[in-house]
């Protein structure tokens, strides 16, 4: 259960960017591909943040998480161009890749599972591919939210990731997003290994 905090943001630039990936627009809200947005909305709600500032081709706002100022970022470029937004924010605040935490959907994991990595390849995810390209680095931590493997019924992959969760899957994703919030709180405090040990599955 999440406990909501009042947003008291420290002065000065953010130390971290926390980016949740997805596609803007009502028709995408409940899709598997928007799991990163679901997470970021939950994180913002917990810290009393309204994501209504439009900057860096994103909606964003700052929040203090465990005494670390973080920029919460929801790119509005559509998934395949997520890197444009992340790069602009990182360049503006001079934030290195290792302080950029990206949360996104992963079809290789069962629905509701998490996997935290310090860095790595794009794994076939176009949003991550874009971020690696625009940062010219894959050295950024990420949290993968499992959305389930594509059914073996001939469905196109794009149709699968843009499909909605079932009621049971949506509850699993809510729990996974809560775990991802807890993981981010550890990661900005330098406890990535602890987060990996606790939440990787």
Quickly describe the structure:
With 201 residues, the protein is of the alpha/beta class. The chain has helices at residues 35-46, 82-93, 126-135, 157-161, 167-187, 192-199, and strands spanning 16-20, 53-55, 58-65, 68-75, 100-106, 114-117, 142-146.
- Radius of gyration of CA atoms, rounded to a whole number: 16 Å
The major pleated sheet works out as: 7 strands, mixed
Q: In what range is the share of β-strand residues?
A: 15-25%
**Based on CA inertia axes, which overall geometry fits?**
globular
Proportion in helices: 25-40%
Number of strands: 7
CATH top-level class: Alpha Beta
Derived structural class? alpha/beta
Q: What average pLDDT do the residues reach? A: 90
Number of helices: 6
Order of adjacent strands in the largest pleated sheet:
2-3-4-1-5-7-6
Total individual domains: 1
Q: What are the segments in which pLDDT stays under 50 over at least 5 consecutive residues?
A: none
CATH architecture: 3-Layer(aba) Sandwich
The CA-CA distance between the termini, in Å, is 20 Å
CATH fold-type name: Rossmann fold
CATH superfamily: Peptidyl-tRNA hydrolase
Q: What's the SSE pattern?
A: EHEEEHEEHEHHH
